[in-house]
Amino acid sequence: MKFTTAAAAAAILGINAWAGQIATGPKVVVCMEESGLAAVRYRAIGLSKKMYEAIGVTLDWESGTRACNAADAIHIELADHTPEKLLPGALAYALPFEGIHIRVFFDRVQKSVGANALPCLLGHVLVHEIGHILQGTVRHSETGVMKAHWTVDDFQQMTYHSLPFTEEDTDLIHSGMETRSARLLLAAEVSR
To answer: Residue 169: pLDDT above 60?
Structure first.
């Protein structure tokens, strides 16, 4: 009985240590402009945090001026009234080589799914575009959240279980974060 209790305690400590490592993984500051539908944004942000925590990256969502003025903060704009001719069919775009800006065509996201699925879709769009920024590429995967075009099956899956990152995407995100940090540090030094 003592051995079972000790083994259970060790397992719990091991799980807590593992969870602590994920929570203290590399951090990324993300700032998104305030807009309507706060509950939708809140749920989408929660989903995005969970999806990145699963690969060992902590998204630190901020709204304060100080954090959002940091050179390494990712800035997300939610756009309404998107012109039809601007990237037709796209729900968002990122500027991965610049490494800071994302624009979500929120009006298109809203038109793509019903109200109940909106937070899930917005969360996946945020995760996808942040993935481009962190990888520093415009590449897409054959499957998962970094897929170029989601299918009806993908939309259905994301309402029940989040679309995963592929192993290659996870590796590219981690190596891209190192490259991005070095690039932003160099840019800060040059601007001084």
So the answer is: yes
Cβ atoms of residues 146 and 165 within 8 Å: yes
Look at residue 9 and tell me whether its pLDDT is greater than 70.
Answer: no
Grade residue 130 by pLDDT with cuts at 50, 70 and 90: very high
Cα 93 to Cα 96: distance, rounded to the nearest angstrom = 9
Give domain status of residue 15, yes or no.
no
Distance of alpha carbon 91 from alpha carbon 148, whole angstroms: 11
d(CA 120, CA 16): 28
Q: Hey, is 186 helix, strand or coil?
A: helix
Q: Would you say the C-alpha torsion 153, 78, 184, 98 has a positive or negative sign? A: positive
Give the residue numbers spanning the domain of 39. Answer: 27-191
Strands 74-79 and 92-94: unpaired
Length of the chain equals 192
Output phi, psi for 91, to 5 deg.
-95, -15
Flag whether 11 is in a domain: no
Distance in angstroms (rounded) separating the CA atoms of residues 158 and 44:
12
* pLDDT surpassing 70 at residue 19: no
* Contact by Cβ (8 Å): 177, 132: no
Closest CA to 50 of 123, 152, 115: 123
